[in-house]
Design brief:
The structure holds 2 protein chains of 2 kinds.
Chain A lengths: L1 H35 L3 H4 L14 H9 L2 H32 L5 H10 L5 H14 L7 H4 L7 H12 L4 H8 L4 H12 L1 H17 L2 H6 L8 H11 L4 H36 L1
Helix pairs in contact in A: 1-14, 3-14, 4-8, 4-11, 4-13, 9-10, 11-14, 13-14
Chain B lengths: L7 H35 L2 E2 L7 E2 L3 H6 L3 H32 L6 H13 L3 H10 L6 H8 L14 H9 L3 H13 L3 H9 L4 H27 L5 H7 L17 H11 L3 H29 L15
Antiparallel strand pairs in B: 1-2
Classes of the chains: A mainly alpha, B mainly alpha.
């Protein structure tokens, strides 16, 4: 009996702790939405109210007419599509090469690829910038998109680990049916690889979406700005209009939240599986 | 394989292997090997991108070691890492123990805790700036409810670094999920056996859980050190332009290494100086990573009956 009571008390405490911590995780978002609906006067109220008396939906309209966020959205989506296409195609091919073929130096090259994850970004950043400026690629999307077509060590690693768990019998069977190397990859493996492809798509999406430094360095013309740069620009012009800034932030964070919600199972599972390799 | 005559099929396989990984090989040369060599050479040059570069020997490094802001940015980054990395690991581990429980709604909790790891960048940095606003921000309002008069988080040079450390804890869910993977990999029979032997909860944690999590801990520590010189976006947005000309916040107490490097490379266009900075920073994190890597024999526990994968922590 006492054991049951103790167990019940333990469960309640755990739930309370978890609930309190989850609240801490989402409070910034609630505060953001709350502020985005406030009038200027309500914004400077102290103590602040969580639910504004007269929610000012017009803030969203204002934020979007004061800065060309529509253009920023189009630009960001263009970059997203090109980058995701590049990563998915290149990482699939590279992981296929590393996991399904025997060739001299394979393990050394694979190790070298993993080692590149340790190269600090600041070291390669400047020569890469100078290289692109020689090619006259500054203020174009090329520096942001082209590297995606040459793979990413982390994604290739994830995908290779996944490919190694797929029995080679499947390839052999397709080979007997007359399929060549490309057909095996496309018809047999890619359909099975969907979970790890989802991880790559979502990671690339959030990576491009959140990236600030590269577009900051490479893009100069306002009409080419991404959402991240556009928002930062909007901040410096309206530094105290928190209601407008929060309205813009809310709209910008929304796609990320939706994508995260849709892909959560894949993402959390994929990350947790990394611990095994740790 | 190297010295025997390869069959036609083997040669075909090898050709296809190289063909499929060729994008990575090209990328490795263009985006890793070439820039690393070039970066080292540029660090010995004066190059403002408008004029032709000239060789200046150790000049950049000499200036660097007499530059007060360089030391400042180094100190800011190291102090930040010295608190943010261990705190993140300890709280992340504690959280993962909670998330490993078999209770109702646990998947919802996991989803919520991982959320901050997906959200970074300008928008959320703005939200934080508003939360930390000393007069009207949410944090000081909440502190006032329990009778504490909150500090001027982002405007006070004595507090700004603490502000960034507190903010970094919002992301512990990401580390907790990685620990969770490690926890779920611990065979249940170990706990059963320990229970039969009469081991208490704390003993089971210190004798089973913690040792078997050390590979995960090691991996995260290494990643944390490598990432420690990369803090940029949040500081760029939250320091504000008003604080100081370098954008380093009040008395440059928020001048992270990457921020200063960015100013030198892309505001002053002093490519040689910035490259020297990149190398010094890179070497320091590399040395720290090597120390951690070398120390793993003393504290990282690799399970004897599971050699595949665990031993190879690249």
């Amino acid at each position: 009996m006492t054991f049951r009571i103790r167990k019940f008390a333990g469960l309640t405490v755990s739930h309370l702790v978890l609930a309190a911590l989850s609240l801490a995780c989402i409070i910034p978002f609630l505060w953001m939405i709350s502020t985005s609906l406030k009038t200027k006067a309500a914004m400077w109220e102290f103590p602040p109210k969580w639910i504004p008396k007269n929610p000012l939906w017009h803030n969203y309209h204002d934020a979007f007419t004061l800065a060309p966020f529509g253009t920023y959205i189009t630009n960001t989506l263009t970059l997203e599509i090109l980058t995701i296409a590049g990563q998915v195609i290149s990482c699939t091919l590279i992981a296929y090469g590393f996991s399904r073929f025997r060739f001299r130096g394979r393990d050394t090259l694979f190790f070298l690829m993993l080692a590149t994850m340790l190269i600090p970004e600041q070291v390669t950043m400047i020569p890469t910038f100078l290289f692109y400026s020689k090619l006259e690629w500054i203020d174009t999307y090329l520096p942001l998109v082209v590297p995606a077509f040459f793979g990413n060590a982390f994604y290739v690693f994830l995908m290779r680990q996944f490919l190694l768990t797929i029995p080679k019998d499947l390839d052999e069977a397709a080979k007997i049916d007359g399929a060549n190397e490309f057909q095996i990859l496309w018809k047999v493996l890619v359909p099975i690889l969907r979970p790890s492809l989802t991880i790559i798509v979502v990671y690339t999406f959030t990576g491009v979406y959140n990236d600030f430094l590269s577009p900051l360095i490479y893009l100069n013309s306002p009409e080419k700005f991404t959402l991240a740069i556009g928002l930062a620009n909007f901040v410096s012009s309206r530094s105290t209009e928190w209601n407008l800034l929060m309205a813009a932030s809310t709209v910008i964070l929304l796609p990320l939240l939706v994508i995260y919600y849709m892909a959560q199972k894949n993402l959390i599972g994929g990350i947790a599986s990394l611990g095994i390799k740790g | 394989m190297a010295n025997t005559i390869m069959s036609k099929a083997e040669r075909r396989e090898e050709r296809f292997g190289y063909l499929f990984i060729s994008p990575w090989i090209i990328g490795f040369i263009a985006f890793a090997a070439f820039p690393i060599v070039a970066s080292l050479l540029i660090s010995f040059m004066k190059w403002d991108i408008y004029q032709a570069p000239s060789w200046v020997g150790w000049d950049n490094f000499n200036h660097l070691f007499h530059d007060k802001l360089f030391y400042k940015s180094m100190r800011v980054t190291l102090v930040y890492s010295a608190f943010a990395i261990p705190l993140g690991l300890i709280f992340g581990l504690a959280l993962s123990l909670l998330l490993n429980m078999n209770i109702r709604g646990i998947n919802t909790y996991r989803t919520l805790f991982y959320l901050p790891s997906v959200i970074s960048g300008v928008a959320i940095a703005m939200v934080w700036k508003w939360i930390f606003n000393s007069d009207y921000g949410l944090l000081n309002y909440m502190l006032s409810l329990i009778g504490i008069h909150g500090p001027k988080w982002l405007e006070d040079p004595n507090w700004i670094l603490t502000t960034y450390i507190i903010m970094s804890l919002w992301g512990i869910g990401g580390s907790a999920i990685i620990f969770l993977g490690g926890l779920q990999n611990i065979p249940g029979h170990l706990y059963e056996a320990a229970k039969i032997d009469g081991a208490k909860v704390m003993q089971r944690f210190s004798k089973i859980t913690l040792p078997l999590l050390t590979p995960t801990l090691f991996f995260q520590l290494l990643m944390g050190i490598i990432g420690s010189f990369q803090v940029f976006t949040s500081a760029f947005i939250m320091n504000g332009r008003g604080g100081s000309a370098s954008g380093g916040g009040p008395e440059n107490e928020g001048l992270f290494y990457m921020l200063y490097l960015y100013q030198k490379a892309f505001k002053s266009f002093d490519m040689g100086y910035a490259s020297a900075m990149a190398w010094v920073g890179g070497l320091i994190s590399f040395v720290l990573a090597i120390i951690v890597y070398k120390s793993q024999g003393r504290w990282v526990f690799y399970d004897a009956d599971d050699n595949n994968g665990k031993g190879r922590t690249a």
